[in-house]
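Quick board copy: two proteins, each given as sequence then tokens.
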Amino acid sequence: MSTESEERPNPAAADDGIEEDDDPPLLSSQALEALREFLSEQSSLGGAGGGRVDGGDDDQDEVRLVAEDWRLSQFWYDRETAETVAEEIRTLYRSTSSPIACIACPTLYAYLKKLDPSVPVKLLEYDKRFEQYGDDFIYYDYNQPEELLPSLKHNYQVIIADPPYLSKECLEKVAHTISLLAHPQDSYLLLLTGEVQKERAAELLNVHPCGFRPQHTNKLGNEFRLFTNYDPAGRLGGWEREV
């Protein structure tokens, strides 16, 4: 059902023979401001429905992504979160020289490649709009956690994952994919998911919450956390110690 009122001709005006004013209608100050905001928002969109992820007005720092698709449970990180986690990933890359696997976190992929285009990264993602990243894009459906190219298996010492749903099943299947991607030697894992997954994540992946709190451009109702399977010490706020 439409919530908009239907426009109907005014019979009284027609009967009275009143001539319509040729002057263009004037918008109220509130309507003009709303129009300016709309046009400003539209001008910031990149490509077909794309948007930028930034936290300020510095266009040099912006990273453009396609628009969030909430049907796929997509919520992009804000710029501070993306830059902080991307810098941590680059630090781990420098110490391991390992290629990077990003599972369902295109924001981090985009910021990492902007930070250092030379870092080898694969984005495992369901949304085929990200095929724009070329060979770095690998189609991934968490419902088929074992459907991976042979070249990917046990090839990554640095893995970042953001399971799309806060369900036990989703986390378990993504955890299985992580186990197939992880290098037999020491691997570094960063998991971004809801606080409600804390105990289950610890059980499945031996990860602990960090002091750094991820944020999204659109505020989420669920408390979001960053977990790692290594102690980042002075980075990412360190492991959060239970009192």
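And the next:
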Amino acid sequence: QAAMLVPPGAGAVPPAQPGPWIERVVGWLGKVFLQDGPSRPASPEAGSTLRRWRCHVQRFFYRIYASLRIEELFSIIRDFPDSRPAIEDLKYCLERTDQRQQLLVSLRAALETRLLHPGVNTCDIITLYISAIKALRVLDPSMVILEVACEPIRRYLRTREDTVRQIVAGLTGDSDGTGDLAVEL
């Protein structure tokens, strides 16, 4: 199943193609800014301007969409593999924008505030860590994002007294929620 970028008021658009919705926006820009229409054809300069605007509009939408997905990344990881289309959309947008640093800062902050504190069960931390490994592999096959963003999880798990016990229980199938650990190995 292909991932879908869905801007407001438009149908689903596969991320591999900018989609008709961007063309509608560019068409609107042509009519508004260049006064392009059937009675008045666009000049070559206007066509060049419109091509530049098309690039700006695409980049703008990719940056906005990536920013929205980056803010939701903790939940997207938690819901993986059901959220795989969102990961694929984000990957597509990150390939066209320079937002990896924003992603790293945001994800590390979300992990530290929402996951890495005494109120969260070790089993839940391990389960989310497994989901993060799976999701971030899809997002970044080089696994650089995984190494950097998940370093606080690895460091925090070393401080928990029951980490080894939960991992062993997960491997033997004695613990709820960490069954993925046995499957992965």
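Board note added afterward: Residues 113 and 124 are 14 Å apart (CA to CA).
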